[in-house]
Amino acid sequence: GKTAAATVAVTIRDTPPPAVTLASPPSTFTTWTFDPVHFSATALDYRGRQLPGSSFVWTADGATALATASTFDTALTTGTHTVALAASDDRGKVTTRLANVTWRDPPGPIPRIAFPSSPILTWAVDPLLLAGSGLDYRGRSMTGAALAWYDGAAPLGTGATLATRLATGTHEIR
């Protein structure tokens, strides 16, 4: 007997790490302190299957654990933070994506005195009517105790309108 053999070359490749897309926020993002930011990502394994939320680990600044999910919301302290997402597949392959998020202190409110609108002269026995409004840093109207009236450093009261009596003299109402 004669024998014959056939051969074929077979290459076995290692699987690639997950394909990860950081959907939000953008890789560089700025917002106001105390405002939560929405984080969202998707990850596919080498077969194109969606990885479960438990495959996602989010951290801030290299150490602080934030979430184990594909999506979550959080607000961090004032400053710039590097938020990292590590997505791992069932073979232990890991892909990391980063987002640098800056939480800034918001600007102060914008007060407006409607009345009196200019310096006035009134009698000490007459009540002085004060009227005003304010906008917060998002442009929303402020109401109630958020609107505080002062005579110099001395508090007079709160609200959009206030009737008060002041002692004889010149006063700086704010």
3D structure, described in words:
This protein has 174 residues and is mainly β. Helix content is 0%, strand content 46%. The strands form four sheets. A five-stranded mixed sheet has the order 2-8-7-4-5, with no helix packed on it. Strand 7 and strand 8 form a beta hairpin. It is rod-shaped, with a radius of gyration of 31 Å. The termini are far apart. The model has no long low-confidence stretch (mean pLDDT 92).
Compile the SSE list and pairings:
Blueprint: E1 19-24, E2 28-32, E3 37-44, E4 56-60, E5 64-67, E6 71-74, E7 79-88, E8 94-104, E9 110-115, E10 128-135, E11 148-151, E12 154-158, E13 161-164
Strand order of the largest sheet: 2-8-7-4-5
Globally, the shape reads rod-shaped
Quaternary status: single chain
| Amount of beta strand | over 45%
* Rg calculated over all Cα atoms: 31 Å
Biggest pleated-sheet summary: 5 strands, mixed
- How far is the first residue's CA from the last residue's CA? 111 Å
Structural class: mainly beta
Number of strands: 13
Fill in the keyword field for this structure.
174 residues, mainly beta, five-stranded mixed β-sheet, three-stranded antiparallel β-sheet
Brief write-up:
The chain is 0% helix and 46% strand. By secondary structure, the protein is an all-beta fold.
